[in-house]
Write a structure and sequence with these properties.
about 15% helix, alpha+beta, about 25% strand, two-stranded antiparallel ribbon, flat, 9 strands
C-alpha cells in the first residue's frame, strides 16, 4: 500500500509488495550490520552462522515458509533457495556435489536409484559465543526413514569462545517419491 500526503488530502493506493530474494538481501544485510555493530570481533563466517542457526522456518502466521517457485506453494526446503550456490566459490560443480558447505547444517545426498541404506558421517567444531560457561544437550528431530547418532550428546563449554567438536552419523535410504526429507539438531 502506498500513501501520498499533501496539503489537502491523503490518497491511499494498493500496490505490489516486492518479495523473494530482492527483499531478503536488504533485510539480511541489515541484520548482519546490526550483528557486526554489536560484535565487532565476529568474522563474516561467525555472522553468517548466527543468522543461519537462529533463523525461524515459520512465517509471521506461524506456518512453514512457502516456496514461491513451486506452483502449489509447498513448504520451502533449504534446497529451494539453491543453497549450494552461496558458497562464494566459482569452482563449485553441480556434477560433483559436496555435502560439506562449511555451514552449520548437514546435507546427506543420495542416489534415488539405490535401495540400500547409506551412511554419512559429519564432523563439526563449534564456538561458544555466549557469555561464560554453558552446557548444551542435543535433541534430534529425525528425517523420515533415517537414524541419527550424535557424539557426544552433550557439549560443555568452560568459557566464551571455547571450542568443542562433535560428530553426526546419518543412516538413511532414498525416498521412493524423490521427496526431500528434513530433520534438525536442537
Amino acid at each position: 500500500m502506498s500513501i501520498e500526503i499533501n496539503e489537502t488530502c491523503i490518497k491511499v493506493e494498493t500496490c505490489a509488495m516486492p518479495s523473494e530474494t530482492s527483499m531478503a538481501c536488504p533485510h539480511a544485510s541489515g541484520i548482519a550490520a546490526l550483528l557486526k555493530g554489536s560484535h565487532s570481533e565476529w568474522s563474516a563466517a561467525a555472522i553468517r552462522s548466527a543468522l543461519v542457526t537462529t533463523a525461524n522456518p515459520l512465517d509471521n502466521t506461524m506456518k512453514p515458509i512457502r516456496d514461491n517457485g513451486v506452483d502449489n506453494l509447498s513448504s520451502a526446503s533449504p534446497l529451494a533457495m539453491e543453497a549450494a550456490k552461496t558458497t562464494g566459490s566459482n569452482s563449485y560443480n553441480c556434477s560433483n556435489p559436496s555435502s560439506d558447505l562449511n555451514y552449520p547444517s548437514f546435507i546427506a545426498l543420495y542416489n534415488p536409484n539405490l535401495t540400500e541404506t547409506m551412511c554419512k558421517k559429519f564432523g563439526k567444531t563449534v564456538t561458544n559465543v555466549g557469555e561464560g560457561a554453558v552446557t548444551y544437550k542435543v535433541k534430534i528431530v529425525r528425517p523420515e526413514g533415517s537414524t541419527i547418532t550424535v557424539s557426544p550428546e552433550t557439549l560443555v563449554f568452560g568459557n566464551t569462545y571455547g571450542k568443542q567438536s562433535f560428530s553426526v552419523t546419518i543412516n538413511y535410504s532414498s525416498n521412493k517419491k524423490g521427496k526431500v526429507s528434513l530433520g534438525e539438531l536442537v
